[in-house]
Request: fold
Amino acid sequence: QPSDQPTKSVSPSAAPSMSPSCYETYIDGFSYTFGDWISATVTTISNPIYTQDSITGAWKTETTTTTTKRNYKCISNHWCGMSGYKPGSTGESLAWQKGIECSGTATATAPTPPLWNSQGGCPRAYEAGTNYDAWDVVAVDNLVYQCAAEPTNLFCGQTGYAPGKDQFWDHSWTMIGSCFGILTPSSSPNFAALTNLGGCPEEWEEKTAGEAYKESDTVSSQGLVFSCKRWPYSTHCGQHGYKPMSNPATPDAWKTAWILTGYCDGSYSPTSSPNFDPTASVGACPDEWSAGSNVKYEEGDMVSATVSTVPLRKVAFRCKFWPLSGNCGQYSPTNELGGSLGWSLAGSCDGSIGPTASPSFGKLAISTTGCPAEYSASSTDYEAGDLTTFIVSTTPERKTVYMCREFPNNGYCNQSGFKPGSQYDNMGWKLIGACSGSLAPTIAPVVYVGSCTYNKCIEVGDTEQCTPGSTGCSCDTNDTAGPNCQRDIKREVCNDKPVNNWSSSVDYTTGDVVRIGSKRFKCRDWPNNRWCRVTAHKPTLENNSIWHQAWLEDGTCP
Reply:
């Protein structure tokens, strides 16, 4: 938003019958907000007029070119500064309301943002298609923009996000100031702003597939330290053309694979990952991984892998939450291409412990309040969150409890081919513990019968009386003050709304609240709010679920 609201320049001798004086001139890329006024000179070409020569019979095409200068009012908080929506463009009507023609020169110049740093020189110009890192800065028309944090930085170089130009630029860039000229050449990056990591790891070298760099491996280049990104980006870390900061043909390609972490001095022994930090040890090592089906390992299961034999170094990995757990039996945790799909590094380990494959009654949580109703193949009304009992054995008596998964997998809960204890039960059911005794059926969620509300605030258009000649006022300086002098404003209106169950027919946005039973969930801020309306991200009673990407827990209803 401009640091000073644009003001209308008025000539003291101007008569009411003359054209009003003009607001400040439009600046492409400036952060205008709703209600700002500017002036712009627009050239229009009339529709062609066709006439036929009475003698030769030839057709002639005639057009009329008209250039006018008029005032415009911003009617959008997002698009007014984008070139595709500037006055005279095809998208003008979405961002600007056309005013009357004006004349004269504004007495105040358009506000210029302060310099972005003490030197004031411009960083390198923005280039579409570049893989920009979080917090990278670029220059466009003497304005400086900073790329957003991860993961939003992935949009910074894409079509439609050019800073100050394209429709969605403010989703991934922030304008941080103005600049002039160019920055004084210096070694990049500035070591004073980086962390001193001590001794340097081994220099980068090109690798074959069998000895490729892995996630978190560190290398040095030109006195700087770089860390290999997570899979699948790690597959590029050892490839030709991705050496950090050293390939003039592809100067930014290395950013796809490596992260700059600091600078170094001297050398130390290689840092092949994982780093054996004693504080990150899990203790004794579980069994080593072995291949199996998509249900061999379950969420939380642990395996070990040998990194080196002399000296003997082993690490432990933990199977990720469902449905990623289906990859744990198919990909070894050390598999370069698929290991990270199912496994996450838990830490180093030493010695050995027994197998940790589930279900193990020694490690399952035991319910002391009894077992829910046994599974019934004839039931067709199981819903997400419903609990049921599966009898593993009668002598000794061993029972396990399963919970019906969230949508869309809850559809399998009512199909006998996916019943608890069957080969494909993980498609519809989740094993959550063991039980003994009995209790009444626990169909979840419990029906809520109370009154539950949340306060929702929205902006609505309104008007207010204004002083003639002031910013956005409908009356000129020479008009008489009164109730006819109005300006458009935005007011925030807040009302209590009922907290209802999530519905695919509602277009949820930031701050909206839904519930399951009495448990409340609030839609996250942008950009995660885009998922709140997606069925796959709707809230459930399972903690390890992708719904956390879109929703926050918001307490319970009274």
